[in-house]
Amino acid sequence: MRQNKHKIVNDPVWGFIDLNSGLLFDLIEHPYFQRLRRIRQLGLTSHVYPGANHTRFEHSIGSMYLVGTALNVLRGKGVEISDEEAEGATIAVLLHDLGHGPFSHALEESIVRGISHEELSLLFMRDLNSQFDGRLDLAIRIFLDQYPKHFLHLLVSSQLDMDRLDFLKRDSFYCGVSEGVVSSDRIIKMLDVRSDQLVVEAKGIYSVENFLIARRMMYWQVYLHKTVVSAERMLVNLLRRASDLVNSGVKVKASGAFACFLNGEVTADDFRSMEINRQKMAVCRFSRLDDSDITSAIKEWTSHSDPILSDLSDRIMNRKLMKIKISPHPFSESQLNDLRSKVLSKTGIQDDKLDYFISVGEMTNKAYKTDEEAIMILHKNGKLKDIRDASDINLEGLTKTVRKHFVCYPAKNSPGN
Hints:
Blueprint: E1 7-11, E2 15-19, H1 22-29, H2 31-34, H3 56-76, H4 83-94, H5 117-131, H6 137-143, H7 150-156, H8 162-175, H9 184-189, E3 191-194, E4 197-201, H10 205-223, H11 226-247, H12 256-262, H13 268-271, H14 276-287, H15 291-301, H16 307-317, E5 323-327, H17 333-347, E6 359-365, E7 376-378, E8 384-386, H18 387-390, H19 396-399, E9 402-409
Parallel strand pairs: 4-7
Antiparallel strand pairs: 1-2, 3-4, 5-9, 6-9, 7-8
């Protein structure tokens, strides 16, 4: 009996989403994609916004839906898009986040150093392509911008792509904030193609302006919220401590999927290896890793004999977060030395272990990138203008990189107390 592969997903953000392609359904059912159910979209943001527990799975489904909607709009305006091209673009955006590791961006450089989630996503897509007898060839070419119709890639990855339209609205919904609520429907309905370039009709200019401002606001309000930054830096330092202990011969409990990354058994070189079996083994091991591996390990580590590991684990599990100071200027060495002295006197942390508890860094926000392909506005006379020139408000502030410096530190409580 033939299995019915026409399914409907009830998404809280976009409503009912039809899955009417057998290949799409099979890809969603694959363990690689199902793993995204266990990867939180916003890392430790739920420490600030309790509702922010949505996953990469939901976001990927939502992005897929928006690409399908945009393709229908473009076809309605006479843009030639074959069924194969539409499926390829839809698959490209559906699988674009397969390479995210536990807690998404929070641990991108901690689980496997020196390799981005985009590179890992491509490896997953290529592995799936071999499993599905080459049926993802077109999707991969669109993903890599190697297909002649450039505008299809722009739907997947650009300054106004469907990925961003989904995550701004979705993250706002689950965080309970209004900053990221944009007119996604209107932006999509105003899309068109000129000279193989994705453009927005002039009637949609205000919605695009709102989109850019919302993007800037969401970074400060949610993604770079100072408490989120503090929590995620703690998590990075915690994993660094665990790895240092393992490398020095101290036993640290972790799942099998997690242990091989913690002890450096799997590295970026394995993913980039020309030996296919070695590369596939790395991808396979990464595919077994999700948030639950990290969370269960941290729970175990709260009672570890190492006071640093147990203290950091307890702080994360019970939301005893580090304090954080923000400055528009870099902290001077004298300021940092004064802070280190105060932390040493208040907490009793050993001087040579202080860098596990004090984190210095910077965060940047740039809503509109001038070094990337511009968002072009299509006027009635057929002329195209960069959104900065077409807008009647000054958007120059959104093109500047705003840089803030921070230092995270414990206010009190020594390790083990």
